[in-house]
Amino acid sequence: MHKLKYLLVVFVVLLMSACTSIQKKSFISSFDTFISDVETNYKTYKEKDWEEADLIYKNLMDVDYVKYQTSLTDAENSHVNTLIGKYQALKLKSSLFGIKNQLQNVIQQGTTIIDEIVSDTTLLK
């Protein structure tokens, strides 16, 4: 009788371990897919797109990563850290593109102002 209980406990532990492993791999796969999508589209992201991406990222970090963090292997943890760094770099690059576009607009507007002033012959009189 004790042997049966022991085997049942071992079976349940193994089953739970297998489920955790599958769920952990699903988290990593989902995170990979999310980062890949962001990397493909970040140049066209507007503020609303980043808000949606941030919500997904926050959920991946605050719910899934916290749940599996202690069971990640060194290689898995390194991979997740790479994905985290990539997301933050993509957000920074997107911000820099926005600043670049704003500067280009200011330069174009300034050039137009100067051209208009220079071309106004009434100022020369």
Question: What does this entry look like structurally?
Answer:
This protein is mainly α and 125 residues long. It has a domain at 63-119. It is 86% helix and 0% strand. The protein contains three helices and no strands. The chain has helices spanning 2-41, 47-68, 74-119. Helix 1 (2-41) packs antiparallel against helix 2 and helix 1 (2-41) runs parallel beside helix 3 (74-119). The chain is rod-shaped, with a radius of gyration of 27 Å.
Give me the strand/helix succession.
Answer: HHH
Radius of gyration: 27 Å
Question: What is the beta-strand fraction?
Answer: under 5%
Give the overall pLDDT as a whole number. 78
Describe the sheet with the most strands.
Answer: none
Beginning-to-end CA distance, first to last residue: 112 Å
Helix coverage percent of residues? over 70%
Shape: rod-shaped
- The total of beta strands comes to 0
Instruction: Count helical runs.
Output: 3
Low-confidence stretches: 10-15
Structural class: mainly alpha
